[in-house]
Amino acid sequence: MLAPLPISVLDWEQTLLDRLDGMGVRRLGQQRPLWLLSVPKRLETREGCPHWHGRLKLQASRERIESGWWDGRDVARDYFIATNPSGSCYWIYRELAGERYWYLQGIFE
């Protein structure tokens, strides 16, 4: 059970995140790759699965990012962490509108 804590306005967010971590609550969006591509690379798709140096295996969870709806430049994507057969780890996304292509956005080290 959460209880009120005496905290300053500046550190309330970190205090809440620390308490949630202590309770075993998993936060989405924590993992980000070390290397981001300046321009995402469209991935080849075979039988509906993205490929980059082999078929990519997606982690079970996704992170949905939607932005730009207020200025007419909508972006809606589902991001995944994926690995290829050799174990390399990538940050990829799939468009939620249009052709729904897969793209490589980043590389984990």
Question: What does this protein look like?
Answer:
- This protein is mainly β.
- The protein has a domain of 75 residues.
- The chain is 10% helix and 39% strand.
- It has one helix and eight strands, in the order H-E-E-E-E-E-E-E-E.
- The strands form two sheets. Strands 1, 4, 5, 6, 7 and 8 form a six-stranded antiparallel beta sheet that branches. Strands 2-3 form a two-stranded antiparallel ribbon.
- A hairpin with a 5-residue loop joins strand 6 and strand 7.
- The longest helix has 11 residues.
- It is globular and about 40 Å long.
- It starts with 11 loop residues before the first helix and ends with a strand.
- About 5% of the residues have low confidence.
Topology:
Elements lengths: L11 H11 L12 E8 L1 E3 L2 E3 L5 E2 L4 E5 L7 E9 L5 E7 L6 E6 L2
Antiparallel strand pairs: 1-8, 2-3, 4-6, 5-6, 6-7, 7-8
Question: What are the key terms here?
Answer:
10% helix, 109 residues, 1 helix, six-stranded antiparallel sheet, mainly beta, 8 strands, single chain
Summarize this structure briefly.
With 109 residues, this protein is mostly beta strands. 10% of the residues lie in helices and 39% in strands.
